Amino acid sequence: MSMRGLISGCLAIVMFVPAVAGQALSTRERARPSYDAGLEHMRNEAFDAAADSFRAAVIIDPAYEMAHYMLGRVQLMQRQYAAATLSLEKARDVFSAQANTKQDTNQKRRDLIDDLSSVITRLEQTRNAQTPPVQEQIRQYKERQRQIQDLDRASGMTGEHAVPAFVWLSLGSAYFRSGKLSDAEHAYSAAIAADSKMGEAHNNLAVVYMETGRLTDAEKAVKAAEKNGFRVSPALKEEIKNRKKM
């Protein structure tokens, strides 16, 4: 089984609609229709159109952190790993820079959490809820609750510590699929630092450890993933066991 197949990148369709307070609001409002269009295109699995819409949003508002993030997610789905890396790095940098400014931090955080909550409500009301894509979105609902907590914990933090875990997780997957294992390890470790209960990050870190020969660490990461409710692939556990025998 391909090791890339063991990496979970949270590639489900995740709907976020952030807002920003203060002077940038008018710019964000002008970018919002393109962002919303991108979300609708993703819901319909029209990924090329979604990417175009998210690009349009960041052209209007280069500080639109979630538009950069969602563009990176689309590019991961399209296996455009180099492009995804750039988009997700930009999302990371914008989150970090905004925290460093400390301007209206609490209000911006509340606005973002409120918008995330409203989109979650929309997702729960999606028609054809039994179809596989929508079922996967529903699975992400619980993850999304923790993502909101990431943003809450980030209040008052600066630099990389203010970057939400879900951004680090996707960035780690982009690095991994580009063959940048050291960078992937850093990103997954940062995701765990931001949210120690993110089972996917522990799982993906286990794959990196295995690929770099740290098999005992890989086993520990597998246990951490399972402890936090993530279903680790039996193939991964078997591969680690076989490599230890060798």
Task: Compile the SSE list and pairings.
Layout: H1 25-43, H2 47-60, H3 65-77, H4 81-101, H5 105-124, H6 132-153, H7 165-177, H8 181-194, H9 199-211, H10 215-227, H11 234-245
Helix pairs in contact: 1-2, 2-3, 3-4, 3-7, 4-7, 5-6, 7-8, 7-9, 8-9, 9-10, 10-11
Protein model, in words:
There is one protein chain. This protein has eleven helices and no strands. By secondary structure, it is mainly α. It has one domain: Tetratricopeptide repeat domain (Serine Threonine Protein Phosphatase 5, Tetratricopeptide repeat), CATH 1.25.40.10. Helix 5 packs antiparallel against helix 6. The longest helix is centred in the middle third of the chain and has 22 residues.
Could you give a quick summary of the protein structure above?
The chain is mostly helical. The protein is 71% helix and 0% strand.
Question: Which descriptor suits the 3D outline?
Answer: elongated
Structural class: mainly alpha
Average pLDDT over all residues: 80
Terminal Cα separation, in Å?
Answer: 18 Å
Annotated CATH topology: Serine Threonine Protein Phosphatase 5, Tetratricopeptide repeat
